[in-house]
Amino acid sequence: MRGIRRCLLSVIILILLLASLMILPDCNSSRDGYRTLVEKNKLCSFSFEYSDYYTRAGPYYELDFRVPFMYVTLLAPKASVNLIVPSGSDTVKTAATDYVPASITIDVSKAVDSVNTARNAKERLESILEDESKWENYQLIARYPMIVAGIQGEFVEYLVDWFAPIPAKEGLKLEHRCAVYFDHNGLIFSIEAMSRGDYDYTKVKTDFEHILQTFKILN
Predict the structure, then answer these.
(1) Of the ranges 46-60, 114-128, 137-151, which one carries the lowest mean pLDDT score?
(2) Sign of CA dihedral 72, 73, 74, 77
(3) pLDDT, tens digit, for every residue of 132-150?
(4) Calpha distance 130→155 (Å, rounded)
(5) Has residue 16 been placed in a domain?
(6) Quick check: bond before 25 cis, omega within 30?
(7) Residue 157's domain spans which residues?
(8) Are 138 and 161 in contact (CB under 8 A)?
(9) Which CATH number is 32's domain given?
(10) With DSSP H G I counted as helix, E B as strand and the rest as coil, what are the percentages for the chain, rounded to 5?
């Protein structure tokens, strides 16, 4: 009799376990046009929602590097652009090529107290803006404090030259960028969006803001 009861109890437990597994959220689930990425590794743990309009590349890791880091990039659908092709003469020839017109990258790296490495998010942001400001058409649009996942960070938005051999007659081409940098538990987090040329920056920024609103640091 005891054996029958134990068998029945085991069956009930198995049924309950299977039922609970069916309602557990998928680490990379899809909902209403959005996907959820849950990332857990020995360097960091976080999650966020992103539009399924983008193709995900990564995550990529260098966790045993002197300065450990990881990143994941969301790529907009490819577009086409005419580039200058060297011809060996005065005639300018062009050829159409595909490129990624917009992307959003989430980057995490360990903060290291070194003269050659950013010791915190503010230092990294200052270093990036110093380099970008050397471009002829650099323009700082906005910079102000911002909270992400309950953590104080800093938002920045700017224009910078798009480095590509595009025929002059097609006009000036710029990259529109925005990013948030913040520190957490000895790590530097950056979330950066970029759109090139005539691509719809408003859409990219909206998708970027959705990531910020859903970004969570996991235990």
Answers:
(1) 114-128
(2) negative
(3) 999 989 999 999 999 999 9
(4) 16
(5) no
(6) no
(7) 26-217
(8) yes
(9) 3.40.1000.10
(10) 25, 45, 30
On whether residue 30 sits in a domain, the answer given is yes
Domain contains 8: no
Yes or no: say if 179 and 194 are a contact pair by the CB < 8 Å rule.
Answer: no
* Amino acid (one-letter) located at 212: L
Q: Count of domains in the chain?
A: 1
Residue ranges of E strands in 41-186: 45-51, 55-62, 69-75, 79-85, 93-99, 102-110, 139-148, 151-161, 174-184
Q: Which residue has the tokens 């086409």?
A: 80
> Is 6 within the bounds of a domain?
no
Which SS3 state, helix, strand or coil, does residue 212 take?
helix
pTM for the model: 0.78
pLDDT at residue 20 greater than cutoff 70: no
Partner residues linked to 72 by β-bridges: 106
